[in-house]
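User: Could you check the structure of this?
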Amino acid sequence: MKPLQFEQKASQRIYEDYMKRIKKATNILSKEDQQDLMMEFNSHIFEGLQSYTTGSEIDNLLDVLQKLGTPEEVLKPLVAEKKLEQATRTFNPVHIFKALALNIFNGITYVIFALLYLFLFSFVFLIFAELWNPSEVGLFMKDGQLLALGKVDGTTAELQGATEVLGHWFIPIMLLLIVVFYVLITLLLRLKRRNK
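Assistant: Sure, the predicted structure tokens are below.
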């Protein structure tokens, strides 16, 4: 991106400050996405300035920047959308949590997705609980009926005579469920983003 050049130092400082604010507002994004947004705003500023035939350079620049709005506010939904796109493309958990944090106030569906991802942590908790106290964690069945999946108190009357059916397979099955649910939730998030 080629920065714009101004005749007045004050205009140049205002422009550079505005572009720095854009860079700061987009620093959570990939370098490519940051550059795209910087170029887009740079283009809007250039085109906006071309529409003026009279007036001082600084007044025209301030007018264009005012019409564009403050970068922190204008870029918030764009950054959230770009981060969500990156997250669903890469399946990277860090990007997904950042994207959900940015989008959490953009509708109830993002809250639901955040809760679904948090639900996956219950499986991680169960794995550690299984390592810590294997006799109270597992898939418990009694008389062919599922009684509980998770950590239970062994003294509960309804669990008397129940059998933990997964045994040493509990941890591998929980790991498999984490991966399967993570992929499914992320694919649903990608589908939701595309159908927006």
